[in-house]
Amino acid sequence: MKILLLTSEFAPAAGGIGTYAREIAAAAVRLGADVTVVAPDYADAAAARADRAAPFRMRRFRGGLHSMRDLPNKVRLAHAIVGADQHEVVHAVDWPFFLPLALARGRTSARLVLTVHGTEINEMQTAAKRLAVRLAGAFGPRAEVVANSDFTRDLFLSRFDVPGERVRAIPLGVSEFWFGPRAERDAVRRQRALDPDALVMVTVARITRRKGHLASLAALRLLPEPLRRRITWLIIGPDGEPDYVAELHAAVDAADCNVRFLGRLPDEDIRDIFGAADFFCLTGVPDASGRVEGFGLVYLEAGACDLPSVATDIGGVNEAVIAGRTGLLVEPEPAAIAGAIDELAADETRRMALGRGALAHARALNWERCAAATYGLWPADDILLPLTDRDRVAIAPAGTPEGEPAAAGWRDADR
What we know:
Layout: E1 2-6, H1 16-30, E2 34-40, H2 45-51, E3 57-61, H3 71-82, E4 89-92, H4 98-104, E5 111-116, H5 119-123, H6 127-136, E6 143-147, H7 150-159, E7 167-169, H8 185-191, E8 199-204, H9 213-222, H10 225-230, E9 231-236, H11 242-254, E10 258-263, H12 267-276, E11 279-282, H13 297-303, E12 309-312, H14 317-320, E13 327-330, H15 334-346, H16 348-364, H17 367-375, E14 384-386, H18 389-394, E15 410-412
Parallel strand pairs: 1-2, 1-4, 2-3, 4-5, 5-6, 6-7, 8-9, 8-11, 9-10, 11-12, 12-13
Antiparallel strand pairs: 14-15
Helix pairs in contact: 1-17, 3-4, 8-12, 9-15, 13-16
């Protein structure tokens, strides 16, 4: 199968969409597909060198992170590249390529796949964007829409008049990297100057208002003093909105809590810190701007390192954190968050049991399964088990009659 991916975000830029594009492309190659990824070059010569090591073919176009003034160039690019070769699937990985792909659809007979991640569904609700979507036929009869969670699927269907059978929810996967070897726990704690007896809580997210760092801090301040003094909170991630970052730093300075800002770190360091921590905490809050948490891949990455999560029940997070099985899911308000932290802190046996559940959940959601479901690819090595009827329905290509198996397929029992 020949697959063409069009994405406006990719390495070296950091972000969830770039991760999705890279991982699903690599997984499709492992399942036997011939994959080409088209992505911006960010005027970065190092990106071209790194591309040579990728398992898929890379084609870079001049550009960076998307802005609306880039749309005409993307339209010209899609028109040229979609018609230049015969592909069985053309996949617009994110919304900036929805319109360009729709306008180029006459140049290919390929299946047209569009992935929605959450926030962009609300961002497309302006009158101008809705008109452009309608006139271009972006979600027309040939479009197969893939959502990263049931929440995102439901949000999309509530905003656009598209038949439900053409919109599928396919959970993301977890890279094998996060299951890989970690530095020894005590060594990491010594390196990071963490007290051997400290309860280490870790958050990995860009410091933006909707990620809820202030809600977590308010929760820590509600804890009894002896427990509060036992907890060290490690905050990993780059700065987001400057006013919010300043507000958070001022609040931390005024709080009687042990909080450390570690900034952006390589994934290898984050994996080691996960192994040295006691639980993960990311407490997103509703955002008036319309940005949403469509899924929450970072909870699964922490789970791959045996960490249970404290999370808030917003967006699609309840599909990444299974309440009572992989972590504690609470309302997005400080008292509820404080109660969840207190519960995990008080019971090591409970933390370990939830950590085992988080690991199992992460292993069940691998990228090969995501790629197989998205493209109709079927892994067939001898360590895989047959798909159940429910699995076959979930990954049937658009147009498969309801109740009819999509194909003889397999699913990975371990990963």
